[in-house]
# Entry
Amino acid sequence: MPNLTRYLRARAQVIFFRRATLMCFHTRRGAAVEVVAPQHAPGQKKPVESVKEFIEQVVKELVEVERHLEEGWKKLAEMAEKQGDRATVTYAEKHLANKANKVVPQAIHIYNTFHEVECAFTYDATAMKEEAEEQEKLAERFMKNSNGSTRQLSHAGGVEAKRVTKLLLSRTI
# Structure
């Protein structure tokens, strides 16, 4: 399943770049950003009898991850609103309003259409190819924007921001 793999790899890059951008945003504003170990999917998977069932499980987990991330952005906006932090509220709402960030419906669409097809390999060669290309373009845009904001941070002279940015970029690439 080369196209599904490409899609998932590009999606992971976008998620990591967004994490790095959010951390840099708060670091520039003077926050002490704490890096917490990521939560991994549970090791126990339901036994499967076919490749299609396994891929359905993976795509279902993708939907759950995307929902969790969207809820996190909403929670960030709510908490910032309670604290009177308009900059963070605007930042989170901008992220939520951006059409490129509407990935939960996209992930659900992938799951539903994959669930309906007879041959997983044909689906991967056709529909997933377009999805993978779209995610790769989005990841490329993030990489370009992220590199630009990294340069701005390092020129601003923020020693801590520079250190955190280097640390984040070394972990995400």
